[in-house]
Amino acid sequence: MNQFAPDEPCYPIGLVARMVSLHPQTLRLYERVGLIGPARSPGNVRLYSELDIARLRKICRLTDELGVNLAAVEVIMRLTDTIEKLQSEMEAMRYSFEAEAERQRRHLGENGDATRCYPEEARG
Fold this sequence. Notes:
By secondary structure, the chain is mainly alpha-helical. It is built from six helices and three strands. The protein has helices at 13-20, 24-32, 50-65, 70-111, 114-117, 119-123, and strands at residues 11-12, 39-40, 46-48.
């Protein structure tokens, strides 16, 4: 099992190229067009993370298996990133709402029924 965090840049371009079956020049092209953004070491060496490698595999699937061109890949990846960000935000909001609902239930349980706290709503 990998001992690195998923977002930790630790793989050099040559190794990543072999891992995803692409030429290093293709990885440089993908960086130039903005599809991937590897970190740089103090010596300016490109270092890729597990997340970068997963992203490259998605790009390969789109181009190789589905025949999508790079312009469309960029749009698809941007939309995918936006969807993932929104899903994460929704999950955080859901967690916050559930925690607040639980806090309210405990408060009501400690202070009696809802008619004492919210008499207008209880009369309905």
